[in-house]
Amino acid sequence: MKKPVVLFEESCVKCAICTEEAPEVFVFVEKIGPQVKEGVDIASHSEKIKKVAQFCPMECIKYHL
Ligand code: SF4
Predict the structure, then answer these.
(1) How far apart are the first and last CA of the chain?
(2) Which of 3, 11, 32, 39 could form a disulfide with 60 if both were Cys (CB 3.0 to 4.6 A apart)?
(3) What is this structure's pTM?
C-alpha cells in the first residue's frame, strides 16, 4: 500500500484558500506557499483534504490517500 501523500503543483497561486479552509492540515509558509503541517496524519484528514482540493481555484492540490 502506498503512503498517503499530498502535493501542491507549481500552478499554485498562493491564494491561501486551502490553508484557511483546513488550518488543522495545512500551513501557509511565506515565500513557499501551502505545506502540509509537520506531524499531521494525512490519512485521518482525507475527507477534508478532498473537499479543500475542490475549492482550489487552480486545481493544483493533488493527493494519494
Ligand atoms: S488553494 Fe490552491 S492555489 Fe490557493 S494556495 Fe492552496 S494550493 Fe495554492
Answers:
(1) 10
(2) 11
(3) 0.93
Grid coordinates of 17: 484558500
Closest residue to atom 2 of ligand 1, CA basis: 56
What is the distance in A from the centroid of ligand 1 to the CA of 6?
Answer: 12
- 3-state SS of the chain is CCCCEEEECCCCCCCCHHHHHCCCCEEEECCCEEEECCCCCHHHHHHHHHHHHHHCCCCCEEEEC
Cβ 25 under 6 angstroms from ligand 1: no
* Whether CATH 1.10.3730.10 fits 5-64: no
